[in-house]
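Hey, resending since the last one bounced:
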Amino acid sequence: MNLQLRPALVIFGLLTIVTGIIYPLAVTGIAQVAFPNQANGSLIIKDGKPIGSSLIGQNFTDPKYIWGRPSATGPMPNNAANSGGSNLGPTNPALTDAVKGRVAAYKAADPAQTGPVPVELVTASASGLDPEIGPAAAMYQAHRVAVARKVPESQVRALIDAHTQGRQWGLFGEPRVNVLELNLALDELKA
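The structure tokens again:
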């Protein structure tokens, strides 16, 4: 028994040190050197204080802001500790009711907007934490934001264009707008 126990304990100790201490410290160190912004949560700092992450959506409901995708996280929206989709199928009445309610909210927030509400504004993503929307979804909201801020709609549209990111490496994904970064830029507009 002693012949087997001692090597097992030595291997257990060595693997604990290698995989529990050395490897995590090495990976953390490399990440801090090579990708410091991403390793620290891609935080957005304003006036010396973190106000959010460029990787996690925030719940904007004020008419003067661009609204992001709905969040399926509970009990509060955009809860990074509870990431996940709603898991409601397309024939589920709860999903249909939720989408109808969201469409009604957009129509009530901007009655002058007569176009169809972009689907991404009324359906949650798989993670429930999307920080970005498509340019069309942002443009759909430009009139409401311009009226609320008392600025020309063309100014809001120009900001949306300026904050639209293209496909990654020109190939992957779709053009997108980071909602938090755009809303911070909107806060800098002068009426």
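Residues 3 and 64 are 73 Å apart (CA to CA).

Sorry for the duplicate.
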